[in-house]
Amino acid sequence: MSKATASSHRTTRGRPQLFTSYAQETAVFNTRVKRNWVLVGILVMLVLPFFMQRDMVALITTVFIFAIGGIGLNLLTGYAGQVSLGQAFFLGVGAYTAAVLGGESRSGVIGLGWDMAIWLPLAGLVPALIALVLAPLAMRVRGLYLAILTLGLVFIGEHIFKEAKPITGGAGVGRAPADPVFLGFDLFANQTILGYRIDRFTIFYVACFIIFVIMAFAAKNFARSRFGRSFAAVRDRDIAAEVMGVSLLRTKTLAFVISSFYAGVSGALLSIVIGRISPETWNILLSIDFLAVIFIGGLATISGSIMGAVFVVLLPKGVNAITPYIPGFGGVGEGGVLNVFELQTIIFGLLIILFLILEPRGLYGLWLRLRNYFKAWPFSY
Amino acid sequence: MDELISSLVRGLGLGGLYALLGVSFVIIFRATGVINFATPALMILGAFFTGAFGNAVGLPFWLSVLLGMAIMAIIGMIIERVALRPMVGRPAFSAATVTVGIFIILLIISGRLIGSELLTVNDPFGLDTVIVFGATIFTVDIARFIVALVAIGIVGLFLARSRTGLAMRATALDQETSLAQGINVGRMFGLSWGIAAAMAALAGALLTAGSSGIETTVALVALKALPVIILGGLDSIKGSVVAGIIIGIAESITRTYQPIYAPWLGANFDVIVPYIIMIIVLMVRPYGLFGTREVVRV
Asked: What are the residue ranges spanned by the domains of chain A?
């Protein structure tokens, strides 16, 4: 890079929207405000668990894990335009890879008890490898055909999970997940660090947060690379992209493989939060959850996937908080109009529909509207 | 031999169900280009209404089936008007995701409507059997097959012969041109959803007939119609019938013989046979047996 472009990387103070080079505009943080707020956000999230209830800490850990899987699905569906209902299958493969490599050998299930530094990358790589094998098949079909194909994958996967008893423990029984021991340091046990006692939920929260931040940045960076832009080209007009020299097969395969890598890591971490994993966990409803993450959050944005994950994971908590004030709703049994779980699911479905109809850009789109409103304030344009 | 005949007939019964559900998918796909993932929930809701008319009101089985279909047709049209019409002109997968949202809402509602008590559809078949060539055959399977074929035949005749059917086919071919010819395209979309929901309701009633009662968990059976339409071709009604029967028989035969000859494939392997067939079809012939090959312009 020449000297002139290097110096123009500095943003002019007070004019954050003035971009003097393409590299500057496509940077991960193209404005200083963005970078600073993200730094503040990361710091806040690191401090937060020390001031929260234990169940909230666990819940927000789940948010990070869902965000990882959501980012993966968004790379495939949002950026590359390939709709997949198969995310649950790859989450399951990741979870069982981790459990076999990092779990304990107990009551008939295999467990090698390796370190997390080995099983975590492999929990991503094995699903990615399976995606690579399946890719030539998935790439023959496009659009809704792919959605149907991946739906079939979930059902076949569920059957295999139920039958492969030495790996999964079998239907209705399940097995214990991997032990998150990273280089000898147990991430899911109470620890004393520098004289402070830190409980295991907080430690695992921080670990998941670090993994999440790394993977989110990697995805953000990937999306602006040559490959990321070829994803968008394939999504917008696949034949035109091919004519321009973008290899369809290679691009779609890459999207499928990367998405499965993210799903695998997400599944491995999710299994630890769940505590005991049964083959029924990785069903079509989990896939729908991830679809909701990206459609509610916003397609083809990394920050949207994160917002979607926050929303989808925290929604049940929110509904629980509200129901006591609405007569006829709430409770856990048959009484009333709807119980809490039913209300949650219905709100969930309604939100998917409403977002698609009213704000296809999702929560990210709502944020853009809000930002632009205050940017132009007091004018409406 | 007896075993073969009874599993073939059971396969035909299943095939009839799959064909009905396949037609339900195909009709909506042809009109609007959307795969309706809400079909399983429509099926369960239809079974509920049939059961409600049969038990609570005490109407005869066939009348309650017809009423259930009519109610579901109206519900289908309302869903189309409220949730799917705004999605016209948007990417097909967005509209398909809307139907996923509808699926989970309707599934919860039907679960709540059915409640914890068993609800049968009050069918005349039950577990009655007849003996044909020494093989024991459930009458409900024969009824499923015949009723499904008759219903699909009526829909096929309606599409082929009636003026409205012609308008529906024109809409499926080219929406803008049909609009220019004076066809109310929106009404055709609604009608497609109405017919599709009614077919799903009929499938629900037939599925529940001969079983112990309606449960929301059987809803996922309807998703097996997806392999059917992949095999038959997404836009072909004839394809759904042929593929429905093929897949129904394949599943039934597997159920009879796989535990004997290939037990290593695991319990309930027959449930995923349709999906395995689908994957093979997608490898060999992605547009199905009777489907139109997709032509894309740059």
From this structure: 54-283
